[in-house]
Design goal:
Layout: E1 10-14, H1 22-31, E2 36-42, E3 61-63, E4 74-77, H2 81-92, E5 97-104, H3 116-126, E6 131-136, H4 146-162, E7 168-174, E8 180-183, E9 190-199, E10 205-214, H5 222-227, E11 230-237, H6 246-252
Parallel strand pairs: 1-2, 1-5, 2-4, 5-6, 6-7, 8-11
Antiparallel strand pairs: 3-4, 7-11, 9-10
GO molecular function, one term: 3'-nucleotidase activity
Domain Survival protein SurE-like phosphatase/nucleotidase: 11-192
Organism: Deinococcus irradiatisoli
């Protein structure tokens, strides 16, 4: 009697750039070679929304065949990246892993606190699933997602085989041209915000929040690795406790 073939692992793919982003298309098609894939992504761009969850209005969940995913099931949601993971897990069945990206632009250092790409991975982790967030740096504004997507598929296969500890995920940044890959720590990469104030045709004031990225180079950080042409893979733990401050804060903590 022959045994039935082992079922393929299932991977839920999300992003924050939206269902029609070329990054998520390249990622889904590449990962489909190593796992069963389904896509749930925002219907419009949701960059910078962080880990927001929509709970004050209903959400729409619609199948879409127009995004170029071939036979891969793809759905769009009028909500945040985290919403996409929640709906995908609950409506389409629990996957073995959540993968978010490939984002158009880096998510390094302090960027992780507002990144919708990272938030989708965090939502997967909060649901007890291993997760990866992937972002890519452009070459003069142009993106070639094929090499990064190929590397992502290899990494997904390894994580599906070996797993990750609870409440952890991998944050990956891909350079324009790949020399290799390395494990890194977070840099101090951040955006220095600038407020641009203008007036509309009726004289009413409005504001744009803008900013320029800043980071100090160190070869063992995500920023340094990408600057040197390497894929940066940073293990991230969701426990934000500053354990080194517990004693100091306890010493001056006021009574009630």
């Amino acid at each position: 009697m022959t045994s039935s073939p082992t079922a393929r692992k299932r991977v839920l793919i999300a992003n924050d750039d939206g269902i029609f982003s070329p990054g998520i298309k390249a990622l889904a098609l590449a990962v489909a070679a190593v796992a069963e894939v389904y896509v749930v992504a925002p219907d419009v761009e949701q960059s910078g929304v962080g880990h927001g969850i929509t709970f004050r209005r209903p959400l729409r969940f619609k199948h879409t065949a127009a995004a170029g995913f071939g036979d891969i099931p793809a759905y769009r949601v009028d909500g945040t990246p985290a919403d996409c993971v929640v709906l995908g897990v609950n409506l389409l069945g629990r996957p073995d892993m959540v993968v978010s990206g490939i984002n158009l632009g880096a998510n390094m250092g302090d960027d992780l606190t507002h990144s919708g790409t990272v938030a989708a991975a965090i939502e997967g982790v909060s649901l007890g699933l291993p997760a990866i967030a992937l972002s890519q740096i452009s070459a003069g504004g142009e993106y070639d997602f094929a090499p990064g997507a190929e590397y992502a598929a290899k990494l997904v296969a390894q994580v599906l085989e070996h797993g990750l500890p609870p409440r952890t995920f991998l944050n990956v940044n891909i350079p324009p041209q790949i020399k290799g890959a390395c494990v890194t720590r977070l840099s101090d990469h951040r955006y220095e915000d600038t407020l641009i104030t203008r007036h509309d045709p009726e004289g009413r004031e409005y504001h744009w929040v803008s900013g320029k990225p800043r980071a100090e180079y160190a070869s063992d950080t995500d920023f340094g690795a990408v600057e040197d042409g390497y894929v940066s893979v940073t293990p991230i733990r969701l426990d934000l406790t500053a354990r080194d401050l517990i004693g100091a804060v306890s010493a001056y903590l006021p009574g009630v």
